[in-house]
Amino acid sequence: MRRLPLLLLLLLGLGLGGQPQPDPPLGAQCLEHDCFGIFWESHPFVEASAACEKGGGHLMTVRSTVAEDAIAVLLQNRSGRLWLGLRLSHRCPDPAQRLRGFQWVTGDGRTDYSNWEPSTGLRGCGERCVTVSRELRWEERMCQEPADGFLCEYNYRGSCPHLPPVEGLLVTYATPFGVRGGDFQALPPGSVALIPAMGLELLCDEAGDSGGLRWGRGAPGAWPCRLANGGCEAACGEEGGGGPHCSCPDGKVLAPDGRGCSSPCAGAPCQHHCVVADSSFVCMCEEGYQLAADGSSCKDIDDCATVPRLCEQVCVNTLGGFECRCHHGYEMVEERCQPISRCQEAPCEQQCEDVAEGDGYRCSCSIGYAVDPRDPSRCYWHCNDSQCPAECNKYGQSCECPEGFILDEGDKGQKVCVDLDECNMDYCEHNCTNHPGGYQCHCQDGYRLRQKFHCIKILPGAEEGAYSGDFGPQSPIPSRTPPKVGHLHPGVLVGVAVGALSAALALLALGYHLVKKCCRPPATMDYKCSGPHEKEMGLQPVASSCAT
Length: 548
Description:
Layout: E1 27-30, E2 34-39, H1 45-54, E3 58-59, H2 65-75, E4 82-88, E5 103-104, E6 128-132, E7 138-141, E8 149-155, E9 160-161, E10 172-174, E11 180-181, E12 186-187, E13 192-195, E14 200-206, E15 213-216, E16 235-237, E17 245-247, E18 253-254, E19 261-262, E20 273-277, E21 280-284, E22 289-291, E23 298-300, H3 303-306, E24 314-318, E25 321-325, E26 330-333, E27 336-339, E28 351-354, E29 361-364, E30 369-372, E31 375-381, E32 387-389, E33 391-392, E34 399-402, E35 405-409, E36 415-419, E37 431-435, E38 438-442, E39 447-450, E40 454-457, H4 490-519, E41 539-540
Parallel strand pairs: 4-8
Antiparallel strand pairs: 1-2, 2-8, 3-8, 4-5, 4-6, 6-7, 9-12, 10-11, 10-13, 13-14, 14-15, 16-17, 18-19, 20-21, 22-23, 24-25, 26-27, 28-29, 30-31, 32-36, 33-34, 34-41, 35-36, 37-38, 39-40
């Protein structure tokens, strides 16, 4: 088992090199971060614990074989029971656990080591403490009973090495917990090294900005180079008759204590970055900033003002940079401003396109459909030709045509919708223009259209209304005055009968004309479309009225 080679040990005698301090340990040893002291004083557990705390430590914890080795060296084969920092408070021991339910005075039960005496153990439950013997065995003991002594532990953040031996120089060390001697291998922070021959008193303390521990003194500059290199971090020299002095390698300068070496940037007032240049420094700024006139602080560069057209639409300067933003109605997409699409929320029935004006969108329809003028978001079936394919079910038995068309068969037997010439039905009082799916009435000069079908004469002096000039000036239609009702002559009765027969013949002729138009090929139809006039339409099933 490795013991002493792993430890930085020192056994100290009482009062070496000076007056004895109150209640110092009779022996001590130090590791890199911990020191242990042995006290041969008979006290109960609580009093022993208080004595350790008074010196800045606590009763010793033994968590590994390294701590066990330290105890062996401190005991020096002397018999006796010494308190350890292990205690059980008002409960029963648990032999199944490594510490049997006991806890260290530090408040935890963490350990990698235990060494209980197998043949001893107090009966029952209740408060009890632990001592260690010369054989390094742990024994349970009533806390109120005095032990032969106790072991204290002192924890530190690091240590200073012992000063290298110099012939003819005596060095004495004093620790913060009261031990004095000359053979330490490691010293905790706060320790003092006394060198009477040089009139030096050195302190183990932090070394500048490095955070490490090293020997130093309050006065700046080096001491004689033969002792620990004069305290210099780099080189120590005494040439020139100016006494010992320290020097540093290129790129570094002497620290304020005159012994350590540091970068020229250490303590430099640079706001952002510091660059070493020929044992000096230069301040530099991060991207988006420029060095101010004082040479150390940094000020923001207004990128939006210095770089033209930096952003597509709006540029906003920020500290150390800038942000590109978009105008109202646009959004940033892959670093470009794109119009915000309103079509996802638009109520369009078929198609939609984004536009800059209005609501930001426009509804449109697929081929064969037109926008409903009564509701621009909806579409209706629209045929803009004299003949269009009919819409039939998958069996081809039920077909439909837009309003203003009639169902027919094409040259190859397919179902088609053929425009109905409403102008042949005398819907208009004066003139009529047929177009696919509808028609439009016009009035002669001196008349204006009323209720889509009728023409009324424009009175002299009255405001002239809208009228169609497609047909040029035409003679007015004479008004027809209905005959007065009086005594009917027998000849009149004959005339009425003849008139009724004539009207029947006229209706029969009109029906024949419609049937003839319906049944003739679409190519032979004559259309008078003067422009893409559209009519409000709806779908209606129309049965063919032609004989095959």
